[in-house]
From TrEMBL:
GO biological process terms on file: phenylacetate catabolic process
Entry GO MF terms: phenylacetyl-CoA 1,2-epoxidase activity
Protein name: Ring-1,2-phenylacetyl-CoA epoxidase subunit PaaA
Annotated source species: Streptacidiphilus jiangxiensis
Source organism superkingdom: Bacteria
Any one annotated GO CC term: cytosol
Length: 326
């Protein structure tokens, strides 16, 4: 192909990509895409997958300490769902030409991130309820629009993830309702958990729009459909009536309904804290990464056994093929 031909073909491909995005159609793995689009998706999907897997730790700690068989079974199912979400997401990332081993390496070497929220400790069983209510609630606000993300495999993975997150949120709320109908001490535990998790949950949506280096391009490519601040505001609007129903106070003196704007006004999260936690200096970062690394090392024999099994099956298929050809 001459230089002019390849330049024309690149222009055609790029115009086709732009038109697909403009018409709200999906980009699929075999389609041409700009390098930046691919890199942004790998970054976001990997961050999301790592969050699901690391996110199993704070609640997982309570499986052996759950107060009843029913609560244990529910929590077990939820934590298993998070593992499943991580796997769908790693599979979605693999369609972009990067494998899960490489993504895991990048996480373990600190070259990729996971959500700040999972660096906070779970101090009582009420935290399990509040994680379901706030963290899964925030995840729903963030991820329902991702079902319309422009990249097909990511958008499709999000549909099932969101259905499961919705169950997770309700189980959290139901747990808290039960505790709020219990003893004074249980109500105090719920309020304490709400006080500790509220601001970190608002930080899950990322830095404010003016300090979000990736938002404008991600929204132009329709990977993200709404800005960080818009989603944060939706989360507050969704959560306030739920808090009233539950009978807890959200720890924000600036929180009030703004009749004129038809939304809540609320205080500013401590974004310096968010940046510190993202950089590794949160209450549990070291422990989370230590456990993730240990789980990966402990799983080495499973990966080796799976690879040996796959090689045997491949050799068997080749021998059978040769036999049939002869
Ligand atoms: N924590 O330009 P920005 C779950 C990073 S899993 C850590 O706004 P972007 C669940 C950001 O990555 C929850 N890092 O970025 C699981 C970027 O750094 P890099 C996870 C954060 O990508 C188990 C830099 O800061 N959900 O729901 O446009 C149990 C600048 O930010 C955070 C997802 O991952 C943070 N909070 O927007 C229960 C959803 N915020 O990558 C629940 C998908 C920002 O340039 N992800 N950063 O080095 C997203 O929607 C977006 O990636 C974000 C950030 C809204 C998180």
């Amino acid at each position: 192909m001459s230089g002019t031909d390849s330049a024309e073909s690149a222009t055609r491909l790029s115009a086709h990509f732009d038109a697909t995005i403009a018409h709200d159609q999906r980009i699929e793995p075999r389609d041409w895409m700009p390098d930046g689009y691919r890199a942004t998706l790998v970054r976001q999907i990997a961050q999301h997958a790592h969050s699901e897997i690391i996110g199993m730790q704070p609640e997982g700690e309570w499986i052996t300490k759950a107060p009843s068989l029913r609560r244990k079974a529910i929590l077990f199912a939820k934590v298993q769902d998070e593992a499943g979400h991580g796997l769908y997401l790693y599979s979605a990332a693999e369609t972009l030409g990067i494998d899960r081993d490489e993504l895991t390496e990048r996480l373990l070497q600190g070259r990729q991130k996971y959500s700040s929220i999972f660096n906070y400790p779970t101090l009582s069983f009420a935290d399990v309820g509040v994680i379901g209510w706030f963290v899964d609630g925030a995840a729903i606000c963030n991820q329902v629009p991702l079902c319309r993300s422009s990249y097909g495999p990511y958008a499709r993975a999000m549909v099932r993830v969101c259905k499961e997150e919705s169950f997770h949120q309700r189980q959290g709320f139901e747990l808290l309702l039960t505790m709020m109908r219990g003893t004074e001490a249980q109500r105090a535990q719920v309020q304490d958990a709400v006080d500790r998790w509220w601001w970190p949950s608002l930080m899950m949506f990322g830095p404010p729009d003016d300090d979000s280096p990736n938002s404008a391009q991600s929204m132009a490519w329709k990977i993200k459909r709404h800005s960080n601040d818009e989603l944060r505001r939706r989360f507050v609007d969704m959560t306030v009536p739920q808090a009233e129903f539950l009978g807890v106070t959200l720890p924000d003196p600036e929180l009030r309904w703004n009749e004129e704007r038809g939304t809540h006004d609320f205080g500013t999260p401590d974004y310096a804290e968010l940046m510190r936690v993202i950089k590794g200096d949160g209450p549990c970062n070291a422990q989370r990464m230590e456990r993730r690394t240990k789980a990966h090392e402990d799983g080495a024999w499973v990966r080796e056994a799976a690879a040996a099994h796959a090689a045997k099956q491949q050799a068997l298929r080749e021998t059978t093929k040769e036999g049939t050809a002869a």
